[in-house]
Amino acid sequence: MDYQALLDEVVDAVQPHMGHGRAAQYIPALASVDVDRFGMAVADVDGEVAGVGDWQVPFSVQSVSKVFSLALVLARDGEDIWRRVGREPSGNPFNSLVQLEYENGIPRNPFINAGALVITDRLLSLTEDPSGTVLEFLREESGNRSVAIDEEVAASETAHGDRNAALAHFMASYGNFDNPVPTVLDHYSRQCSIAMSCRDLALAGGFLARHGLRADGTRLLAGREAKRVNAVMLTCGTYDAAGDFAYRVGLPGKSGVGGGIIAVVPGRCTVCVWSPGLDARGNSVAGTAALDAFTTLTGWSVF
Ligand code: DON
Fold first, then answer.
1. Given strand 269-274, what is the order of strands in its sheet?
2. Which residues have C-beta atoms less than 6 Å from ligand 1?
3. Best CA proximity match to 291, nearest among 38, 75, 91
4. In b/e form, how buried is each residue of 124-144, taking b as 16+ CB within 10 angstroms?
5. pTM (predicted TM-score)
6. Which CATH architecture has domain 3-298?
7. How far is CA 47 from CA 66, 72, 142, 144, 169, in A?
């Protein structure tokens, strides 16, 4: 497959969507990012990467980081985590509070904010430094030691994190939190504030296309666990738009409000696209259109 030619075709197909949507407004440090940016990278299972546009420009990974924190907990803890967090789509916005009370403080899945906070709480118990553990993993898998936390974004998130604090305290009231809420919130904000490029993220997500094998050939996850992470990405990775994402793209995918999305073609490649203009549900407009074009042109939807 000539990935470079394919990416050029994708860019042509996406032109009508470029610049559409709005950058995330509720985290002020993200609100000023230029919505005309667009980058896309494909990393095959052997670690060969091709890219187009702003594919080497670092952006705020935000919720894309939740795939990695989940994988790092599963790698250490196995299936135990599913007693504290579900794996069903929520049908609600990523920062919604309502479902948590009906469901006794057990979040629907690890990719909505409540579920990701439980994962960070568990990774804190397991490693003492969850954001540092995620960062180190991303550096190792991307081969880029300069991947770092954007301190301005982290401070902005912490200053405007009342909703996440509410979710965390609410779960703590149900006993679904082991560590002090402020410590978990701090690590969660820092993990979301990691800045890296499409190139780096496509490489870092390679284990999901390699059935659990890391870039150096060692095993992070058993094949069946990698399959399960991909399944949760497919059903829950784009929140209340997961059905539409499956309909249009048909791949396991995980979005973030920085405008990034990673998507996995198991056994073949990992794709990362970035464009900061978001739709009403917090997913990149041009990014989703690009992945739609990608699977339409290649026929690589899992369906
Ligand atoms: O907690 C938040 O709201 C952000 N740090 C991450 C949210 C996010 O990326 C949701 N994705 N679409």
1. 49-53, 39-44, 269-274, 260-265, 253-255
2. 62-63, 94-95, 113, 157, 164, 192, 255-257, 282
3. 38
4. beebeebbebbbebbbebbeb
5. 0.97
6. 3-Layer(aba) Sandwich (3.40)
7. 22, 20, 9, 13, 41
114 and 107 in contact (C-beta within 8 Å)?
yes
232 belongs to the catalytic site: no
pLDDT in tens, 135-150: 999 999 999 999 999 9
254 included as an active-site residue: no
Q: Report which protein residue has its CA nearest ligand 1's atom 2.
A: 113
The CA distance from 111 to 131, in Å, is 16
- Distance (angstroms) between ligand 1 centre and the Cα of 63 equals 5
Cβ atoms within 10 Å of 1's Cβ, excluding its own = 12
pLDDT tens by residue, 49-80: 999 999 999 999 999 999 999 999 999 998 89
Ligand 1: residue of 192, 240, 245, 273 to mutate (most ligand atoms within 8 A of CB) is 192
Assigned token pair, 16: 């009508």
